[in-house]
Design brief:
The protein has 507 residues and is α/β, with parallel strands linked by helices. 42% of the residues lie in helices and 11% in strands. A 7-stranded mixed β-sheet has the order 1-3-2-8-10-9-14, with helices on both faces.
């Protein structure tokens, strides 16, 4: 049954309110543990080790994180589907069967709303999917459970899954743990808020343009975007339900509060051999990398397209200084052909003119932060050309207007050209960066800015150049947090020319 938006909103609001109330009632009947503080501060690896050793019980770990989650959800609004009552039952079952000990034993997890859980909707904040429960668990969900992880809830996402602010008309807006007036990022933003507020020990998200990385950049923590088809996608909501994927594939990946947890979850998933049940996953087993001797790093701050804030510049410079102090080589580079890469990414990710996306949203009200992607790509090309000509004079900058002309429906000949351009860019980077420089890795900003206030992402989505560059190139990319000096900072108010103030002027 397809619900109207009003019916869907009422249904999900009622279901969530009831599930949260039942969770609160169930937790009230469980006494706090003497280890609660230690549990909440522990890594997922430590939790699993102690649960396997019998030092902690699963009911203790789940109850501690569930209490924290309810407290923080009231402040930040990140839970979409609450499974805390079921998680407590699962924890009791684990404790009653001490012979079964998985590598993620007793670890309280959250998962992005995009992943199927049997019997629950994967609505991603869209009304037409608010009464469409999954018939099976996603491959990743099955893997987590098989290894002893306990899933407590699903987390919020942006409308369309293609903005870096987690807000939709069904579940509302999710705040940043450091300051709820600021965005937590997207599209795995609910995961970022949950992990950043200490409400779950481990999580999984997805990424097609930075969605695993914005949230940990904005809210704190670690994440890893794999290359395409490295991790399973079966059972993951994908807008490709409505359109053939024409270029860049979404990927799934781990999110956590400690780097050792990213390694642990990565290993656990691949040791489960997901390619046996998901044909989209490459048959490549886990390979442990041992860094030996002095490493050679390339680094950059400015990507030649977007201006970088002092805070993000400082994070890169401090990382470079720390590596050099340990004897590693760090060489500054200028990333090549970035404007061309931006144009290619925009063309490939709007190749159907976002008609499929508009169809899926139906009569749902649009969030303000999706206006750019919903209004401009569907316009006829001649209209976008005229708008570009008019805005050239207004902004006095070609960066924005070039993107306006490029976004939109592409012919098959144009798609072939852009896919060839993508292949050529990959080869150019291989020849001129990796082979020529002999580098082991690249260090760069995740995003040009720290977290911004709610609503301002709609002005600046295209400046995320150095984030979605690595989706286009299909490189693995991870996020490592730097120091937080102060939660107070100067703030630039959005308005006329906000996008162009953050871009290096085009010619």
């Amino acid at each position: 049954m397809t619900l109207t938006f009003e019916q869907a909103l009422a249904k999900k609001t009622s279901e969530r309110t009831l599930a949260l109330a039942k969770a609160s009632e169930a937790l009230a009947a469980i006494p706090s543990s003497a280890y609660d503080g230690e549990i909440l501060a522990a890594s997922a690896k430590t939790i699993a080790d102690k649960c396997r050793a019998g030092e902690w019980k699963a009911i203790e770990t789940v109850a501690a994180f569930a209490r924290k989650a309810l407290e923080q959800h009231a402040r930040l609004n990140f839970i979409t589907e609450c499974m805390i009552v079921e998680a407590l039952d699962k924890a009791r079952q684990q404790d009653a069967n001490p012979d079964k000990r998985g590598k993620l034993q007793g670890v309280p997890c959250s998962i992005k709303d995009q992943f199927d859980v049997r019997g629950l909707d994967s609505s991603v904040g869209i009304s037409r999917y608010c009464d469409d429960p999954a018939s099976n668990d996603a491959v990743l969900v099955s893997s987590l459970r098989r290894n002893g992880a306990i899933i407590m809830f699903k987390t919020n996402v942006p409308q369309t899954l293609m903005t870096n602010e987690s807000s939709n008309p069904i579940f509302g807006k999710t705040g940043n743990p450091a300051n709820p007036d600021y965005t937590c990022g997207g599209s795995s933003g609910g995961e970022g808020a949950s992990l950043g507020s200490g409400s779950s020990a481990l999580g999984i998200g997805t990424d097609i343009a930075g969605s695993l990385r914005y949230p940990t950049h904005f809210s704190g923590g670690y994440s890893l975007k794999p290359s395409e088809d490295r991790w399973p996608r079966k059972g993951m909501f994908d807008f490709d339900r409505s359109a053939e994927n024409l270029g860049i594939k979404p990927v799934s990946g781990p999110m956590g509060r400690f780097v050792e947890d990213i390694e642990l979850l990565w290993q656990v998933v691949l040791e489960d051999e997901p390619w046996l049940v998901d044909s989209s996953t490459l048959q490549i087993p886990h390979r442990k990398y041992e860094a030996k001797g002095r490493q050679r790093f390339a680094y950059y701050v400015d990507d030649t397209f977007s201006k970088v804030s002092p805070a993000c510049r400082r994070a890169v410079e401090e990382a470079v200084a720390a590596l050099r102090a340990q004897g590693h080589i760090c060489e500054e580079i200028v990333p090549p052909r970035v404007s061309e890469a931006v144009h290619c990414f925009v063309a490939l990710t709007s190749a159907d003119g976002n008609v499929g996306m508009k169809k899926l949203l139906g009569k749902d009200p649009w969030e303000r932060n999706v206006a750019m992607e919903m209004v401009f790509p569907p316009l006829p090309r001649f209209v976008r050309q005229l708008l570009g000509f008019a805005l050239d004079g207004y902004f006095k900058d070609r960066q924005f207007t070039d993107l306006l002309r490029i976004c939109g429906k592409q012919s098959w000949d144009e798609l072939s050209k852009w896919n060839w351009t993508r292949s050529d860019l990959k080869q150019h980077w291989l020849d001129n960066i990796w082979r020529a420089g002999g580098f082991d890795a690249i260090i760069c900003p995740v995003y040009p800015l720290p977290a911004v206030k709610h609503g301002e992402t709609r002005e600046i989505l295209p400046v995320a150049t150095t984030t979605y560059l690595y989706n286009l190139l299909d490189y693995p990319a991870g996020v490592i947090p730097s120091k937080m000096r102060s939660r107070a900072r100067t703030h630039t108010k959005a308005g006329k020319g906000y996008f162009t103030r953050l871009c290096i002027k085009g010619s």
